[in-house]
TrEMBL record, chain B:
Oligomeric form and interacting partners: UreD, UreF and UreG form a complex that acts as a GTP-hydrolysis-dependent molecular chaperone, activating the urease apoprotein by helping to assemble the nickel containing metallocenter of UreC. The UreE protein probably delivers the nickel.
Species whose genome carries this gene: Oleiharenicola lentus
Protein name: Urease accessory protein UreF
Subcellular location: Cytoplasm
UniProt cross-references to Pfam families, sorted A to Z: UreF
Chief place where the protein resides: cytoplasm
PANTHER family, per the entry: UREASE ACCESSORY PROTEIN F
Keyword Metal-binding: no
Stated family: Belongs to the UreF family.
InterPro entries assigned to the protein according to its UniProt record, in alphabetical order: UreF, UreF_sf
Function: Required for maturation of urease via the functional incorporation of the urease nickel metallocenter.
GO MF: nickel cation binding
Gene Ontology cellular component terms for the protein in this record: cytoplasm
Keywords: Chaperone, Cytoplasm, Nickel insertion
Length: 265, 237
């Protein structure tokens, strides 16, 4: 899938480049005039991520454009017999551009093997909010959790060409389950890992930190330059979603494009 | 009988690594808990048993997948005088630490140790490193400073990694003794148990390619981030 968002003379963002094929489908974009953001929903018309799938996406936001990309439902990674599935995604934001990537959670099933590589390049003066949400498994299916074979999530972020963040999550389900038990988050712990790239003051930080408590851990820290790492762990999926919603509301007060409702479509 | 003085070169680097790994060596690591104080404040680590869990579930994997592979890769790059790779590894080391305190701790300890090497053991590699680091604005790194010291001393990579492993584990347990009700014998028995894992961890770390360096514990990162704003604290990180 390839998307390119460009700002028109009237200030509205439009998709000036768009190509995709299965398992991607892109919905008709929606211009949210209040937040000045173009909302695009990316749908996987299959049941989920299957053995042998290779998903590749490239999203570029040009100067002055604002784009929110979301998905309508969780991405289930199904049990695999021998092979694995891979997703490579690349996001590029030009100066004065804004990109928010807000997918629904990843749900790795028993015996799945999945690798996701995310590379982000933001020009100085560009902005980005990217969130990865992870569920421990199909909790509603006989409590199936922490049973993936291999789960590797890699994220690399460059601002102005400089590497500011590299994260590599490559843990067994058993290892993460043990950590969740150790820290008291429990058997249904869910994870949120967000990166915010934005310039200027950050009066929102204290309010974001206050989301910590009642079974939710929240930490905010500055990156090497140009932004923040925001991590949150919740004891269950309801609290995870509630935390993300509250976090976006706090951030929207400072970054108005985040006032765009991802569920508008 | 030959009366010429015989020099054991292994004894030379062993003595050097012992000096570098000693708490007497002024790298400033004694002022850091590397996130442990944050986890103590969150009530997660509160006694020897939970400390042991923390070491086994978090500290050892992070050493195996991040700090030790960084040191191994830097040791190789320094040996080849591949300075662009050394610079990339310094930036990678900094970018791997999302919590500001963890990043600054590695930077400060790395800077202190690098400058000590250049002062105590004048060696062209150390002075070249400092010159290029300053010119390129490379972040400092405790793991890469250890690799540099190993190269200057002539120590092989497993010995350098074992030194990093020991220093990291001992520093963490030393901090734990100030944060918890933990005696000398309890901490030494834990240290002994953890050191028994060193050969396996070092061997695994040597095999980690640059593209696969990295590991994170979300709870530790969150605790470290929250520690930045704690009302009271004993350690810098």
């Amino acid at each position: 899938m390839r998307l390119k968002a460009t700002a028109g003379a009237n200030g509205r963002t439009a998709l000036t480049g768009q190509s995709f094929r299965a398992p991607y489908h892109v919905s008709k974009p929606y211009w949210d005039a209040d937040s000045g953001t173009l909302l695009v929903q990316v749908v996987n018309p299959t049941a989920g991520i299957l053995e042998g799938d290779f998903l590749e996406s490239d999203i570029a936001v040009a100067k002055g454009a604002a784009l929110l990309v979301t998905t309508p439902s969780a991405s289930r990674v199904f049990k695999m017999k021998d092979g694995s599935a891979e997703c490579r995604q690349h996001f590029a934001v030009a100066k004065d551009g804004w990109l928010e990537v807000l997918p629904e959670p990843l749900v790795p099933h028993r015996g799945s093997r999945y690798r996701q590589t995310t590379t982000v390049e933001v020009e100085s003066g560009g902005g980005l909010f990217f969130v990865d949400l992870l569920m421990p498994g199909r909790i509603a299916h006989k409590g199936e959790a922490w049973l993936w074979d291999r789960l590797c999530l890699e994220t690399e972020v460059r601002v102005g060409g400089e590497l500011v963040l590299r994260e590599r999550f490559d843990q067994s389900g058993a290892g993460l389950k043990a950590l969740a038990a150790f820290t008291g988050s429990g058997a249904k712990a869910c994870f949120g890992n967000a990166v915010l790239i934005a310039e200027g003051e950050a009066p929102w930080v204290e309010a974001a930190r206050m989301l910590h408590g009642d079974g939710v851990w929240v930490g905010v820290s500055t990156l090497r330059r140009g932004g923040w790492s925001i991590k949150f762990v919740a004891a269950d999926s309801i609290r995870l979603r509630r935390t993300l919603k509250a976090l976006r509301e706090i951030l929207a007060a400072n970054y108005p494009r985040m006032a765009c409702d991802p569920r508008k479509l | 009988m030959n009366s010429d003085q015989v020099t054991n070169t292994e004894a030379a680097w062993i003595a050097g690594l012992l000096q570098a790994g000693d708490s007497f060596y002024p790298t400033g690591s004694y002022a850091h808990s590397f996130g442990l104080e944050g986890l103590v404040q969150e009530g997660v680590v509160h006694d020897r048993a939970t400390l042991r869990d923390f070491m086994l579930l978090s500290v050892v994997p992070a050493l195996r997948q991040a700090e030790l592979p960084l040191a191994a890769q830097a040791w190789r790059a320094l040996g080849e005088e591949n300075w662009s790779q050394v610079g990339e590894l310094c930036r990678l080391s900094s970018a791997l630490k999302t919590a500001k305190e963890a990043r600054l701790a590695a930077d400060n300890i790395g800077r202190q140790r690098t400058e000590l090497i250049a002062t105590l053991r004048p060696h062209p590699l150390a002075s070249e490193y400092l010159k290029r680091s300053n010119a390129g604005g490379w972040p400092f790194s405790a793991a890469i400073a250890a690799a540099l010291e190993g190269r200057v001393l002539g120590a092989p990579v497993p010995a350098v990694l074992a030194g990093v492993y020991y220093a990291a584990v001992a520093a963490q347990l030393s901090a734990a003794m100030k944060l918890l009700r933990l005696g000398q014998n309890a901490s030494q028995s834990l240290l002994t148990e953890l050191l028994q894992q060193a050969p396996v961890v070092v061997a695994a770390a040597e095999q980690v390619p640059v593209a696969e360096i990295g590991w994170f514990n979300p709870w530790l990162d969150i605790a470290a981030a929250r520690h930045e704003h704690a009302d009271s604290r004993m350690f810098i990180s």
